[in-house]
Amino acid sequence: MPFAIPKCLCVMIVGVSIAAGYQAQAPKSDTAGTPAAGKRPVTPASKPLTPQMLQEIALRAISSDGVLGRPRVLVDSTTKTLRMDISPTPMQFIAVKTTRTSRLLEQAVRIEVLRRDLKKALGQETFWQAPVVGVDEAIRKTATSLTTATAGALSPVAASGDPIEASFEALQDATKKFGDDSGWTVDQTRDIATGFRVKVVFLPERAHVFVMPFTAYLLSQKPGQSLDSQWVEIFEGPRQMSGKYHFKAVWPRELHGAFENNFDVTDNDQEIKFTPQE
């Protein structure tokens, strides 16, 4: 992942244990809205989100997800070195399906982190302010141009000439010029983000577990969005995961039925255990 992420203490959530330790009460839930085992529902049409909704989701996501909210700008004033990462977050850590809306959400998350970090590290400088506003404006124009028909359209790769990505590149160019003009060393190396290696375990094994990235859960709570379309079933064994997830675990009624909660993946080699709620 870009920049080193500090190791954290393992935690436990009722219903999900990540190694051992802390416990928290999980809310009870029925199985309404959960897809049949092994099946993913058809994605219904999604209403476009307003730019304000996108920003609201982005701000909540980066405040609650330590991976999405990781620093993208690091400054060492002693060596006059500036590191900035404008690379996209892999879409599998944002939503189950890459649609025009979920891609917009990733871009909204990215610019909010960059805004936060640039303001904190280089608030006295002005070179970054206009390019950041340029990204905001590109997101606003794209969001307002979407319709019900296009908002949920699959978008496996960024469109050529995407004005939002062009605006991110303008921010990158402005940062490089700042370095050249002020004698700072600017490092904009992009690391490949592949997620963390985890092991998923069900105790007992008679479970169906469905998950979605937490950003997808936040998205699904907005008007005109579908929770049902975001669930994906996971199985026991090794996986690549990253950040915060929302889950629903379903056992037979004699094993306490179903419930929902969240869990975090912040490091390699975590064992994520799903157990019935007492």
Helix content: 25-40%
Instruction: Return the domain count.
Output: 2
Strand content: 15-25%
Low-confidence stretches: 1-15, 18-45
Please state the average pLDDT score: 81
Output the radius of gyration. 20 Å
Number of strand segments: 13
Shape: globular
Distance between the termini: 36 Å
Tell me the series of helices and strands, N- to C-terminal. EEEHEEHHHHEEEHEEEEE
Judged by helices, strands and strand pairing, the structural class is alpha+beta
Major sheet? 5 strands, mixed
Strand order of the largest sheet: 1-2-13-7-10
Count of individual helical segments: 6
How would you portray this structure in words?
With 278 residues, the protein is α+β, with helices and mostly antiparallel strands. It folds into two domains: 101 residues, no CATH class; 137 residues, no CATH class. It has six helices and 13 strands. It has a five-stranded mixed β-sheet, with no helix packed on it. Strands 3-12-11-8-9 form a five-stranded antiparallel β-sheet. A hairpin with a 4-residue loop joins β4 and β5. α1 packs across α2. It is globular, with a radius of gyration of 20 Å. The N terminus is likely disordered.
